[in-house]
Design brief:
By secondary structure, this protein is of the alpha/beta class. It has two domains: 33 residues; 134 residues, Glutaredoxin (3-Layer(aba) Sandwich). Helix content is 43%, strand content 19%.
């Protein structure tokens, strides 16, 4: 007859190690999440706003945009900016040239310029980040209040310091 306590120690010891490792990995994942902005899609944004209204920060970019890439490397890696966006805002990042069909607020949005223009711009950035008396340009950032009303638009490279100041001065 087999010694049950010895058998259990041998069998469950690796499970204990596995459990400890899983706990460690999940805690490091929690720390890692504060090292980056928790970007949402428009679909995720709609769900989040339905649960808890919050200010919204939207970053429109394109793969060819040098200042967009510079913001990704500087402003969007800055710890105070990351903390502010993750705690006080829902952050959305969208390729302005996306060809995806996006459903938001009961409507469907597409990129109607595909095949008509070299850098075809999706409807959403055209609606949210257009300027009076000026063409759409990148980088483009839009800030909305809890009621999903636009409070500010920026069409320039924002340094980490300037972006942090802007984010912390929104009503």
């Amino acid at each position: 007859m087999r010694n049950t306590s010895s058998y259990m120690k041998k069998t469950f010891f690796p499970i204990g190690i596995l459990f400890s490792l899983m706990t460690f990995l999940s805690s490091t994942e929690a720390f890692a999440q504060e090292d980056e902005i928790q970007w949402l899609s428009f679909e995720q944004l709609e769900d989040s706003l339905a649960v808890k209204p919050k200010k919204v920060f939207i970053d429109f970019y394109a793969d060819w945009c040098a200042y967009c890439k510079k913001m990704d490397k500087a402003a969007f890696k800055d710890p105070p900016v990351i903390t502010t966006l993750n705690t006080e805002y829902y952050a959305v990042q969208m390729n302005a040239e996306s060809q995806e069909t996006i459903s938001f607020g009961g409507d469907t949005y597409t990129n109607k310029e595909v095949g008509k223009k070299r850098n075809a711009t999706h409807e959403i950035p055209l609606l949210l980040a257009s300027r009076e008396n000026g063409p759409f340009s990148l980088p483009a950032m839009v800030i909305l209040n809890e009621k999903f009303e636009i409070t500010a638009r920026y069409f320039e490279y924002l340094s980490p310091k300037k972006l942090n100041r802007i984010l912390n001065n929104q009503p």
